[in-house]
Each structure stands twice: as structure tokens, then as C-alpha cells.
Design brief:
This protein is mostly helical. It has five helices and no strands. It has helices spanning about 5-35, 45-55, 60-70, 70-90, 95. Helix 1 (about 5-35) runs antiparallel to helix 2 (about 45-55) and helix 2 packs antiparallel against helix 4.
Length: about 100
């Protein structure tokens, strides 16, 4: 499989934040059930908002990897879903943020 393809970067840009969000959500639920962290001290959607933004920000690590390996077409493909997901995040939480 040729990795320096636009569609490869696009797929990674869509799937990586979903996987990372699932991992973070699982870790958060484990910490909540063990009593390390509590949901009561924060706003109702704080954890959803924060975990989603951090998962989306994890695309930076993939982007850095693509840049180091000189996979420029894949990096271009990665940027589009990242920007679209960031716009969706901003639209969804606009009222809370501003």
C-alpha cells in the first residue's frame, strides 16, 4: 500500500481522532468509576468538549510523522478532515464558548 496518497491521509484524519476519543473516553470512565475523577465538579458537557478537542489535536502527531517521512500528499489529505472536524466542534460548542 502506497502511503503517500491523499486518500490515505484523509482516512487517517477521520479515523485517528475517533480512535483516540474512544481511548480517552474509556480512560475517563475508568477513572470516574474508581473515584479518581468526578463528573460533578464540571459543566455538563465539559468532558465531551475537552476530550473531543484533545482527540482532534492528536492529529498533529500524525501530521508530524507524515512530514518527517516526507509524505506530503498524505499530509494534505490529513488536513482536510482535521479542519472539517474542528469546524464541526466549533459549531457544536459555539454557544458555550462565546
Amino acid at each position: 500500500m502506497k502511503k503517500d496518497r491523499f486518500i490515505f491521509g484523509f482516512a487517517v484524519g477521520l479515523l485517528w481522532p475517533i480512535v483516540v476519543y474512544g481511548i480517552f473516553l474509556t480512560l475517563y470512565d475508568l477513572m470516574d468509576s474508581s473515584g479518581v475523577m468526578s463528573k460533578t465538579n464540571f459543566a455538563a458537557d465539559f468532558h465531551t468538549r475537552t476530550l473531543t478537542l484533545v482527540a482532534l489535536g492528536c492529529n498533529v502527531f500524525i501530521m508530524q510523522y507524515f512530514n518527517k517521512k516526507r509524505l506530503y500528499n498524505a499530509m494534505r489529505g490529513l488536513v482536510i478532515p482535521t479542519m472539517v472536524l474542528a469546524a464541526i466542534w466549533l459549531y457544536k460548542f459555539y454557544d458555550v464558548l462565546f
